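Continuing the series of single-chain predictions for the mutant panel. This is the parent chain; the variants come on the following pages.
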Amino acid sequence: MTIVSLKTEPKGELYRIELSDGSLFSFRNCYLPTELFDIHLTNPDTAQGKEITAEEETAFRHASACLRAEKTALRLIARAEQCSLGLARKLEKRKFNKACVNAVISRLSELNLLDDSRFSRLWLESRLRLARSPRRLMSALCGRGIDRDDAETALKAVLDEDAEFSLLTRFVKKYARKLGDGETGNRSLKYLLKSEGFSHAAVQKFLDGDF
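Parent structure:
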């Protein structure tokens, strides 16, 4: 297999290559092994007629597949904020192989176009009014592939004192009506609220009527 032509495209890191079997495709240089870049891309004008090995051809085609996956990922990000695992699943569902997906996820993270912490905060903020409790929020966020420690950090950032107390009040009105009154009812309510992830301070504030 030989290179018929290799040209840089206007967008900087993009290249367009034609091979002797008639293949014509674009790729981004960051998805190529460094040694392959050094051999063929340092001076693209001299690449014409160069022989490439089967391994090098595979690397070029892999870089092209990564570029296609990247373009798909950017369209998804343009529609809505994405998290790493969620985006990876969507790309794999679209038949991109795992190696391409991992490379794209890594690049977009480096460019700050993909940020699990930012995704977590935005996701939590969008669901606070409909949320049931901190525990349910945590569970839902972790279910989207967010690391538990990262999810806890995001929840602490979003759920300030006022937001937590508002959430707690709504929870009590909707879910805790059958616990009864008096000391027994208060103990049951306190246990329920703590099991749902509400802080001790918020629970005590509610039970004391300090609001």
